[in-house]
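mind reviewing this stuff:

——
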Amino acid sequence: MKQLTRISGLLIISALLTCCEGNEHKISVKDSDDTYEFFAKFDKSKTQQVQDFINAEVAPTSSFSGDNVDITTTLDDHTKFKLEESPGRVRIELDKGDNSEASYRRIKKMCEGIKKELGEL
């Protein structure tokens, strides 16, 4: 009987940890002399909202869709950046040496907008 109670307890704890893990939010920004990197981990239910926001920001040059995006793109204004996106995650990297100050500000502003979309500002 004790063993059944222990197993039941472990199953309940595992289920709770799994549920909590799905709602974990994390945003990190690294802004060095050479690169600007943005990473966000968020509730998977907000993936489409984030994708729609990014698409609006890069329009009309590009549009991204699908469950797993991993591309480097160049916009009409010559902004070049890498985008990695999967359900509940987005990573954007901009090489400052390959971009103008205006391009850097554009991507930084877009990333700040993603934070707002996720309710982090």
The domain at 24-117 is CATH 3.30.70 (Alpha-Beta Plaits). The helical segments are 2-22, 47-58, 101-117. Residues 2-22 form the longest helix (21 residues). The chain has a mean pLDDT of 85.
